[in-house]
Design goal:
Structural class of chain B: mainly alpha
Helix content of chain A: over 70%
Strand order of the largest sheet of chain A: 1-2
Helix content of chain B: over 70%
Shape of chain A: globular
Strand content of chain B: under 5%
Oligomer: heterodimer
Distance between the termini of chain B: 31 Å
Largest sheet of chain A: 2 strands, antiparallel
Order of helices and strands of chain A: HHHHHHHHEEHHHHHHHHHHHH
Order of helices and strands of chain B: HHHH
Largest sheet of chain B: none
Strand content of chain A: under 5%
Shape of chain B: flat
Radius of gyration of chain B: 22 Å
Number of strands of chain A: 2
Structural class of chain A: mainly alpha
């Protein structure tokens, strides 16, 4: 059995090295860098717009392309934080603290290089942990019954709801709303239409693309339009003096402990559903500041500050895929979008993924490592070129992305119904944004909805109306108690946003 | 964070927001779900999970409303109006109509220049 697994793993890794796969990963990395630098476009919005582009690729190329975008957009996001003190995403806000003072002191290139090396190291560590941990966890998850699975989903949704929005109540309401929307379509058990209002287009359920593109990309463009209408211009990037081109082995060794520590922080936080890159970069920065040596002045241009924030930020992305590959639970919005991409290609994430699509999974792991290497190469070569993109005005970006959203949602089924639905979900997403209902929690609820319903139905059949069945399933009971305790704890503290 | 009469207005708005959403959930629970689901023989009713979700949402909204109306809870208001939704939503809606009646090229040719003009050309720079 071990030999067979090794053979599948090798075949998968070889697939990742095929020129076509490497080409699509490279395309994703290039797009990701550009998107990270372009003002107003964040990682979830970019991934949502890119899903339709991946529609015509093979499953491995599609996921490799999307992973390239997810990884490189995080690294690219540091550019605007360092050069114009404008974080493209909340998680890059910490990079501004030391990155911008460094740029003002004439060390912009050094700060960009540290951000790049930190991003790559964090990303590689997160990916290696994913490769090492996902398979054993998935094997363990195969023994998990429906009661335990339902309890795990409740726990994950509680964490995500608590951490992604302004209040846990509104977060949970958004998550439940996502599950409610996921119930639209033919009922899996009875085959009768449910909440379809007689629309034939809804029999297969609400199209995932309409929801993701509408709520993440188009809603984000509406939010960017607020900035445009407020006439907040984009400041000019700080130019780097010619002498600012030195970051040698000695400097690298000086920052290496911060790189490694922050990789561990980012990976640990990434595994837990809901915590995301913002929490990781803040936590990592706080730790680095706490361990500062005399003379290291965090907040005034300390290179370790940039390293801590960027390394942890990028370690989160691969680590957040661990619950996805092992349990089928998307722990972040990027993972939820990846579920969408896999589903489009007929692959359902979950513990059976290794048994049913082992070669593809190892191919994805290989593509993730290829993306890490390409991130380094593209980042080193295009460091200055990408920085120029920071000056593209939002008045150009918004209409172009709006057009891409419309064409992308049309591409899935060549259906105008999906396009109008996408526009409707964008409006709904904007209203949710204004009233502090997390779109991310809604989307994750929508993605896990079908699996949650299946597990819940099986649990109820198993219980047969007897709630004491939980006593015979102590793991499920413990997880539910943990969810309750977490929910109670989170009602007492204000939350900050930041899932990606 | 607001004080005085503005705070009172904010609380009234919170109460109204909570009541409007709860009314919407009432409509879903007592009209939409019963009207749009049919019982189907063996197993759980197809309306079971939607009903559980609607009740759960209602409970969460009510708890949130109570928490926000408690004395000492900061009252916040979104800093800008609905102009962005009208502008970007309008561009998207016009683009969707163009896609419907003129195809992909018409959609791009309408959405991009119209968006550029409506959003103020290079003003955002």
């Amino acid at each position: 059995v071990g030999d067979a697994v090794s053979a599948v793993a090798l075949l998968g890794m070889a697939d990742a090295l095929r020129p076509s796969t490497v080409g699509f990963v490279l395309l994703g990395v290039l797009l990701g860098y550009a998107i990270g630098v372009l003002p107003g476009l964040n990682r979830p919005a970019a991934l949502a717009v890119a899903i339709p582009l991946s529609y015509y690729m093979t499953p491995l190329s599609a996921v490799g392309f999307l992973i390239g975008i997810a990884k490189a957009s995080g690294a690219g996001g540091a550019t605007t934080a360092i050069l114009i003190n404008t974080p493209g995403e909340p998680n890059a806000a910490v990079t501004c603290l030391d990155g911008y003072p460094l740029a003002k002191a004439g060390r912009a290139k050094t700060a960009l290089k540290v951000a790049l090396y930190g991003s790559v190291i964090g990303d590689v560590v997160g990916t290696l942990v994913l490769i090492a941990v996902a398979k054993p966890l998935a094997t363990l998850a195969l023994r998990v019954g429906p009661l335990e699975m339902s309890a795990l989903m409740v726990l994950a949704l509680t964490f995500i709801a608590a951490l992604a929005g302004a209040s846990i109540f509104r977060g949970l309401a958004a998550g439940l709303f996502g599950i409610l929307v996921a119930t639209i379509g033919l009922d899996a058990e009875t085959g009768t239409p449910r909440l379809t209002f007689g629309q034939v287009e809804l029999l297969d359920g609400v199209p995932l693309l309409a929801v993701t593109v509408g709520m993440l990309a188009l809603t984000e463009m509406i939010i960017q339009t607020e900035e445009v209408l407020a006439r907040r211009g984009v400041p000019a990037p700080i130019a780097s003096p010619p002498e600012d081109d030195r970051f040698g082995w000695r400097d690298f060794r000086h920052v290496l402990p911060t790189f490694l520590r922050s990789s561990a922080v980012g990976t640990g936080i990434g595994i837990l559903p809901g915590l995301g890159p913002t929490v990781a970069s803040f936590a990592s920065y706080a730790l680095a500041k706490r361990l500062a040596r005399p003379g290291e002045r965090f907040g005034e241009g300390e290179i370790k500050g940039v390293a801590a924030a960027e390394t942890a930020d990028n370690a989160v992305v691969p680590a957040s895929f661990i619950p996805l590959f092992a349990l089928g639970l998307p722990g972040s919005v990027s993972a939820a979008i990846l579920v969408g991409a896999l589903t489009i290609h007929g692959v359902t994430p979950g513990p059976r993924l290794f048994a049913e699509h082992g070669r593809l999974v190892y191919g994805i792991f290989g593509a993730m490592l290829v993306a890490s290497v390409l991130m380094l190469v593209v980042g080193r070569i295009g460091l200055v070129a990408f920085a120029r993109l920071a000056r593209v005005p939002a008045t150009v970006i918004v209409p172009v992305v709006v057009a891409l959203c419309l064409l992308g949602s049309y591409a899935e089924n060549r259906s105008m119904f999906a396009v109008y639905l996408m526009v409707g979900f964008a409006a709904l997403g904007y209203v949710m944004h204004r009233f502090d209902y997390s779109r991310v929690t809604f989307l994750i609820g929508f993605v896990i909805g079908p699996q949650f319903e299946l597990s819940l139905r099986q649990s109820l059949v198993l219980a047969n109306g007897d709630p004491t069945v939980l006593l015979r399933h102590p793991a499920a009971l413990a997880i539910l108690i943990l969810a309750l305790l977490a929910g109670a704890a989170f009602t007492r503290r204000p939350q900050q946003g930041g899932l990606a | 964070v607001r004080h005085g009469p503005a705070r009172l207005r904010g609380r009234a708005r919170t109460l109204l927001e909570t009541l409007v959403i709860l009314a919407g959930i009432g409509v879903v629970l007592f009209w939409v779900i019963p009207g749009q689901t049919r019982g189907g023989g063996l197993g759980l009713s197809p309306g079971f999970l939607p009903t559980v979700c609607a009740i759960g949402i209602g409970l969460m909204i009510a708890l949130d409303g109570v928490a926000r109306l408690l004395p000492g809870t900061p009252v916040r208001r979104y800093p800008v109006g609905w102009g962005a939704l009208l502008a970007a939503g309008g561009i998207a809606a016009a683009g969707a109509v163009a896609l419907d009646f003129g195809g992909a090229v018409a959609c791009v040719l309408l959405t991009v220049p119209a968006g550029f003009l409506i959003l103020g050309g290079g003003a955002g720079r």
